[in-house]
Amino acid sequence: MATKASRTAARMMMAPAVIVLLGWMLVPLIMTLWFSFRNYLPLRGGDLGFAGFDNYVRFITSSAFWPAVLATLTIVLGTLIITVVLGVLLALLLDQPMWGQGIVRILVIAPFFVMPTVSGLVWKNMFLDSVNGLFAHAARAIGVTPVEWIIEAPFFSIILITSWTWLPFATLILLTAIQSLDSEQLDAAEMDGAPKIKRFWYIIVPHMSRAITVVILIQTIFLLSVFAEIFVTTAGAFGSKTLTYLIYQRVLESQNIGLGSAGGVYAIILANIVAVFLMRIVGKNLDA
Amino acid sequence: MGQIELKKVTKRFGETEVIPPLDLVIGEGEFVVFVGPSGCGKSTLLRLIAGLEDITSGTIEIDGQDATAVGPAKRGLAMVFQSYALYPHMTVRKNIAFPLKMAGMDAAAINAKVTAAASVLNLTDYLDRRPGQLSGGQRQRVAIGRAIVREPSAFLFDEPLSNLDAALRVNMRLEITELHQTLKTTMIYVTHDQVEAMTMADKIVVLRAGNIEQVGSPLELYRTPRNTFVAGFIGSPKMNLIDGAEAAKHGVATIGIRPEHVTVSKDGGDWQGRVTVAEHLGSDTFLHVASDLGQMTVRVGGEMNVRHGDTIWMTPDMTHLHRFGADGLRTP
């Protein structure tokens, strides 16, 4: 099988794909790095030469930086908690034999296929809107003043939307984890005198721990870059400006490409730290 | 302690009846083996006794108490599973301690029991390992350890040796038999391997399609199989079942003769045949013979110089001839 000639042939045949992928990844990365060291203001004179580390310093010393970090963490953590907890419960529920299992499972996955912009708009206009939203109708029906969700609870609103998108993903991964559990282990635990709750804690949760970690890490990477949901709802107002949104504002609203690129480099570093952990865990999963 | 009685027990999965009404008494301290081909309902029967499946009708009594509606944990039975069902994220110590922990026993008592069980099963050096780091035989012992610490009134084994290699299986078979002699606790053992059944059991229950075909000691089953199914299932190699004209000479539909009850000669005898395969084991020689009566297997003690294609003569030992009627049942 693995003769020298066949290995060379394999490398040759993989080369085009690898080169395209590398180029796809490296060109924007190098451009971002390049711009982050330039003083580049498109509407105010264009490329004004090297800026050294000025952009990096300015980005983190800006008064908007720490609130943005906090906002990012709030959205990431809030969504993670909701999706993992509900994901485990939904996975347990979907694992039960029931009528129309296949259809139910497809329906559960459906929200994941809705584009973030679309789901943001649907939630904003159809659910959270204080005049026409379903929540407002429900509130009026029971005689309560409707809440201006996006203004009064911007984080809650955004987390609700992102959780809605990511819950199916978590559920799906956790469901496959539950299904891979050897039913004899549960039988054994039952014989050993563990009631349902204890079987859940001592057998099911440890069995799912690796899947939960994978869900957390993958979601973290994607949630760090949540943008559309904020753009179409609060547009960064009411303190809901995340790091991603801050970078967007620096580049497009302030027309400062250098400063935005420096923020982008920070984001790359952050995402890579998470990615390293993810690679390790997924790699371990494949070994086992 | 440890008497189990099944009365008119049935089990249906939807429309399919897996266990038709079945009565069985398992006496205290007995080693009972459920044996049968795959799909005969033996594992289902064990799970019914364990309480892991609900019975459709009938009653199960354990030590004279009706246990039909009692949950599996409360029946006082311990089970060893085919896959061992060890908890992969717990160390051997925690695996063995799990049932005690669930029973709310205090840490010192748990520790003492786990240590004692580990020394009986030669697991002392492995207590801090995970199941994944153990060999098949060691995993099997951990599973047994987890069962014995509970001091159950009966042990249930669900094909516990089927995942082990042949040499280890013989070893573990001995260990389980010895364990039974030490503990003197009732054991119910499910297997599809009639050798395991013959070597370990006090009492064998032969099952086919959920029906009990025969209950008895290994030698009873060997000497007086109740019907052609038991005759063909118990004993290795299988009994030769012959029907047609030869059986009619004895006034029955089928006659059976075990391979070891046939005398083989190269010169003359009752039945003539041609050797298709000769298996030379040293201690015995098994000959597969194409005869006028059909394919037969015979055993010759020691070494016999025959090869593929040789013609031989076979003479059955009439005192060991089994006669079966047209309904498959034994006739005297």
TrEMBL record, chain A:
Major localisation: membrane
Keywords tagged on the record: Cell membrane, Membrane, Transmembrane, Transmembrane helix, Transport
The ABC transmembrane type-1 domain, residue ranges: 69-278
UniProt topology in membrane: Multi-pass membrane protein
Compartmental location: Cell membrane
GO CC field: plasma membrane
Transmembrane parts of this sequence: 12-37, 64-94, 106-123, 155-178, 260-282
PROSITE patterns: ABC_TM1
Gene Ontology biological process terms from the UniProt entry: transmembrane transport
Alphabetical list of PANTHER family matching this protein: BLR7065 PROTEIN, INTEGRAL MEMBRANE SUGAR TRANSPORT PROTEIN
Family recorded in the similarity comment: Belongs to the binding-protein-dependent transport system permease family.
Name listed for the protein in its UniProt record: Sorbitol ABC transporter membrane protein /mannitol ABC transporter membrane protein
From TrEMBL, chain B:
Keyword field contains Nucleotide-binding: yes
Ranges in a coiled coil: none
A single cellular component GO annotation: ATP-binding cassette (ABC) transporter complex, substrate-binding subunit-containing
Keywords: ATP-binding, Nucleotide-binding, Transport
The ABC transporter domain, residue ranges: 4-234
KW Cell cycle (keyword) present: no
One GO MF term: ATP hydrolysis activity
Pfam name, any one: ABC_tran
PROSITE patterns linked to this entry: ABC_TRANSPORTER_1 (PS00211), ABC_TRANSPORTER_2 (PS50893)
Protein family (similarity comment): Belongs to the ABC transporter superfamily.
Name of the protein in its database record: Sorbitol ABC transporter ATP-binding protein /mannitol ABC transporter ATP-binding protein
Organism: Pseudorhodobacter antarcticus
